[in-house]
Protein backbone atom coordinates (compact mmCIF):
# COMPACT_ATOMS: atom_id res chain seq x y z
CA UNK A 1 0.00 0.00 0.00
CA UNK A 2 1.38 3.39 -0.98
CA UNK A 3 0.59 6.35 1.29
CA UNK A 4 1.09 10.07 0.67
CA UNK A 5 1.78 11.71 4.06
CA UNK A 6 1.04 15.42 4.42
CA UNK A 7 1.13 17.76 7.39
CA UNK A 8 1.05 21.44 8.34
CA UNK A 9 -0.81 22.94 5.41
CA UNK A 10 -1.58 26.11 7.40
CA UNK A 11 -4.26 27.30 5.03
CA UNK A 12 -2.08 27.32 1.91
CA UNK A 13 -4.69 26.24 -0.64
CA UNK A 14 -2.25 27.06 -3.45
CA UNK A 15 0.18 24.44 -2.09
CA UNK A 16 -2.61 21.85 -1.92
CA UNK A 17 -3.48 22.53 -5.55
CA UNK A 18 0.21 22.27 -6.48
CA UNK A 19 0.78 18.93 -4.77
CA UNK A 20 -2.40 17.41 -6.18
CA UNK A 21 -1.38 18.53 -9.67
CA UNK A 22 2.06 17.04 -8.96
CA UNK A 23 0.48 13.74 -7.88
CA UNK A 24 -1.76 13.37 -10.93
CA UNK A 25 -0.98 10.11 -12.65
CA UNK A 26 0.97 8.78 -9.64
CA UNK A 27 -0.03 5.37 -8.32
CA UNK A 28 -0.92 5.52 -4.63
CA UNK A 29 -3.75 4.36 -2.39
CA UNK A 30 -4.29 6.86 0.41
CA UNK A 31 -3.52 10.38 1.64
CA UNK A 32 -3.02 10.92 5.39
CA UNK A 33 -3.04 14.49 6.75
CA UNK A 34 -1.39 14.99 10.15
CA UNK A 35 -3.05 18.27 11.14
CA UNK A 36 -2.72 22.04 11.00
CA UNK A 37 -4.98 22.12 8.00
CA UNK A 38 -5.60 25.82 8.68
CA UNK A 39 -3.63 28.65 10.28
CA UNK A 40 -5.93 29.33 13.24
CA UNK A 41 -8.92 29.10 10.92
CA UNK A 42 -12.28 27.47 11.48
CA UNK A 43 -14.63 25.24 9.59
CA UNK A 44 -14.88 27.44 6.48
CA UNK A 45 -11.10 27.78 6.16
CA UNK A 46 -10.67 24.04 6.66
CA UNK A 47 -13.28 23.25 4.02
CA UNK A 48 -11.50 25.55 1.57
CA UNK A 49 -8.49 23.23 1.91
CA UNK A 50 -10.25 19.88 2.16
CA UNK A 51 -12.51 20.47 -0.85
CA UNK A 52 -9.39 20.15 -3.00
CA UNK A 53 -8.76 16.65 -1.64
CA UNK A 54 -12.43 15.75 -2.10
CA UNK A 55 -12.29 16.83 -5.75
CA UNK A 56 -9.11 14.80 -6.25
CA UNK A 57 -11.16 11.65 -5.59
CA UNK A 58 -8.52 9.69 -3.73
CA UNK A 59 -9.26 8.36 -0.23
CA UNK A 60 -7.95 10.58 2.56
CA UNK A 61 -8.14 10.86 6.35
CA UNK A 62 -6.99 13.60 8.68
CA UNK A 63 -6.58 14.74 12.26
CA UNK A 64 -6.73 18.35 13.38
CA UNK A 65 -3.61 20.16 14.54
CA UNK A 66 -3.16 22.53 17.45
CA UNK A 67 -3.61 25.51 15.07
CA UNK A 68 -6.98 24.37 13.67
CA UNK A 69 -10.20 25.99 14.87
CA UNK A 70 -12.40 24.22 17.42
CA UNK A 71 -15.01 23.44 14.77
CA UNK A 72 -12.52 21.84 12.38
CA UNK A 73 -13.08 18.50 14.11
CA UNK A 74 -16.81 18.86 13.45
CA UNK A 75 -16.08 19.34 9.74
CA UNK A 76 -13.81 16.29 9.62
CA UNK A 77 -16.65 14.27 11.17
CA UNK A 78 -19.18 15.64 8.66
CA UNK A 79 -16.90 14.69 5.78
CA UNK A 80 -16.33 11.23 7.31
CA UNK A 81 -12.54 11.67 7.19
CA UNK A 82 -11.82 12.23 10.89
CA UNK A 83 -9.23 10.03 12.59
CA UNK A 84 -8.84 11.94 15.88
CA UNK A 85 -9.77 9.56 18.69
CA UNK A 86 -10.72 6.91 16.14
CA UNK A 87 -9.48 3.83 14.37
CA UNK A 88 -10.28 2.78 10.81
CA UNK A 89 -9.18 -0.07 8.59
CA UNK A 90 -8.06 0.61 5.05
CA UNK A 91 -6.96 -2.21 2.73
CA UNK A 92 -6.61 -4.40 5.82
CA UNK A 93 -4.38 -1.88 7.62
CA UNK A 94 -5.53 -0.32 10.89
CA UNK A 95 -4.90 3.41 11.35
CA UNK A 96 -5.30 5.12 14.72
CA UNK A 97 -5.42 8.90 15.01
CA UNK A 98 -4.59 11.53 17.63
CA UNK A 99 -4.99 15.21 16.79
CA UNK A 100 -3.96 18.41 18.53
CA UNK A 101 -0.69 18.58 20.42
CA UNK A 102 0.74 18.16 23.86
CA UNK A 103 0.76 21.37 25.94
CA UNK A 104 2.78 24.21 24.36
CA UNK A 105 3.95 27.56 25.79
CA UNK A 106 1.67 29.33 23.30
CA UNK A 107 -1.85 28.31 24.45
CA UNK A 108 -2.93 27.22 20.98
CA UNK A 109 -6.38 25.92 20.12
CA UNK A 110 -6.09 22.13 20.40
CA UNK A 111 -3.76 21.14 23.22
CA UNK A 112 -4.15 17.91 25.20
CA UNK A 113 -2.63 16.77 28.45
CA UNK A 114 -0.24 13.85 28.30
CA UNK A 115 -2.87 11.77 30.11
CA UNK A 116 -5.46 12.58 27.43
CA UNK A 117 -3.03 11.65 24.66
CA UNK A 118 -2.22 8.36 26.38
CA UNK A 119 -5.86 7.47 26.95
CA UNK A 120 -6.90 8.19 23.36
CA UNK A 121 -4.08 6.07 21.97
CA UNK A 122 -4.65 3.14 24.33
CA UNK A 123 -8.41 3.17 23.78
CA UNK A 124 -8.21 2.93 20.00
CA UNK A 125 -4.95 1.26 19.00
CA UNK A 126 -4.73 -2.36 17.88
CA UNK A 127 -1.50 -4.27 17.22
CA UNK A 128 0.03 -3.44 13.86
CA UNK A 129 -1.81 -0.13 13.37
CA UNK A 130 -0.27 2.93 11.77
CA UNK A 131 -0.51 5.95 14.09
CA UNK A 132 -1.42 9.34 12.59
CA UNK A 133 -0.50 12.02 15.13
CA UNK A 134 -0.11 15.78 14.80
CA UNK A 135 2.45 15.85 17.60
CA UNK A 136 5.72 13.91 17.30
CA UNK A 137 7.12 11.73 20.08
CA UNK A 138 9.50 13.38 22.58
CA UNK A 139 13.29 13.22 22.24
CA UNK A 140 13.57 12.29 18.58
CA UNK A 141 14.96 13.85 15.43
CA UNK A 142 11.43 14.82 14.46
CA UNK A 143 10.51 16.93 17.52
CA UNK A 144 13.59 19.16 17.83
CA UNK A 145 12.96 22.91 17.52
CA UNK A 146 15.31 25.51 16.07
CA UNK A 147 16.61 26.32 19.56
CA UNK A 148 17.34 22.66 20.29
CA UNK A 149 14.39 21.95 22.57
CA UNK A 150 12.56 18.65 22.20
CA UNK A 151 8.87 19.61 22.05
CA UNK A 152 7.11 16.32 21.34
CA UNK A 153 4.74 14.23 23.44
CA UNK A 154 6.12 12.12 26.28
CA UNK A 155 3.02 9.95 26.23
CA UNK A 156 3.34 9.21 22.53
CA UNK A 157 6.94 8.19 23.08
CA UNK A 158 5.99 5.91 25.98
CA UNK A 159 3.20 4.44 23.87
CA UNK A 160 5.63 3.67 21.04
CA UNK A 161 8.09 2.06 23.46
CA UNK A 162 5.35 -0.18 24.87
CA UNK A 163 3.21 -0.99 21.82
CA UNK A 164 5.74 -0.84 18.94
CA UNK A 165 3.48 0.42 16.12
CA UNK A 166 5.16 -0.13 12.76
CA UNK A 167 4.75 3.49 11.65
CA UNK A 168 4.00 6.89 13.17
CA UNK A 169 3.22 9.81 10.85
CA UNK A 170 3.46 13.20 12.58
CA UNK A 171 4.17 16.90 12.02
CA UNK A 172 3.84 20.00 14.24
CA UNK A 173 7.55 20.90 14.44
CA UNK A 174 8.18 22.33 10.98
CA UNK A 175 11.96 22.43 11.23
CA UNK A 176 12.17 18.80 12.39
CA UNK A 177 11.32 17.23 9.05
CA UNK A 178 12.89 13.79 8.90
CA UNK A 179 12.76 10.09 9.69
CA UNK A 180 13.66 8.46 13.00
CA UNK A 181 13.23 5.16 14.84
CA UNK A 182 12.22 4.11 18.32
CA UNK A 183 12.90 0.41 18.58
CA UNK A 184 11.24 -1.15 15.57
CA UNK A 185 8.88 1.81 15.03
CA UNK A 186 9.60 4.14 12.11
CA UNK A 187 8.58 7.78 12.64
CA UNK A 188 8.24 10.31 9.84
CA UNK A 189 7.66 14.04 9.96
CA UNK A 190 7.19 14.86 6.26
CA UNK A 191 7.81 18.57 6.81
CA UNK A 192 5.22 21.29 6.20
CA UNK A 193 3.20 21.16 3.01
CA UNK A 194 3.04 24.94 3.32
CA UNK A 195 6.68 24.85 2.19
CA UNK A 196 6.22 22.13 -0.42
CA UNK A 197 7.15 19.05 1.63
CA UNK A 198 5.49 15.63 1.81
CA UNK A 199 6.45 11.97 2.14
CA UNK A 200 5.79 8.80 0.17
CA UNK A 201 5.48 5.65 2.26
CA UNK A 202 5.42 2.11 0.92
CA UNK A 203 3.70 -0.03 3.56
CA UNK A 204 3.35 -3.81 3.39
CA UNK A 205 -0.24 -4.47 4.46
CA UNK A 206 0.35 -8.18 4.95
CA UNK A 207 3.49 -7.96 7.09
CA UNK A 208 2.40 -4.64 8.70
CA UNK A 209 5.76 -3.01 8.13
CA UNK A 210 7.28 -0.08 6.26
CA UNK A 211 9.13 -1.09 3.12
CA UNK A 212 10.30 2.40 2.18
CA UNK A 213 9.89 6.10 3.08
CA UNK A 214 11.06 9.00 0.95
CA UNK A 215 10.89 12.67 1.82
CA UNK A 216 9.81 14.69 -1.19
CA UNK A 217 9.53 18.33 -2.24
CA UNK A 218 7.69 19.91 -5.15
Automatic annotation (TrEMBL):
Provide the cofactor list for this protein: a divalent metal cation
| Enzyme Commission number | 3.1.4.-
InterPro entries, alphabetized: Calcineurin-like_PHP, Metallo-depent_PP-like, PAE1087_MPP, Phosphodiesterase_MJ0936/Vps29
Q: What is this protein called?
A: Phosphoesterase
Keyword Magnesium set for record? no
The UniProt record lists the Calcineurin-like phosphoesterase domain at 1-175
Q: Which SUPFAM superfamilies match?
A: Metallo-dependent phosphatases
Keywords, A to Z? Metal-binding
Q: Pfam families attached here? A: Metallophos (PF00149)
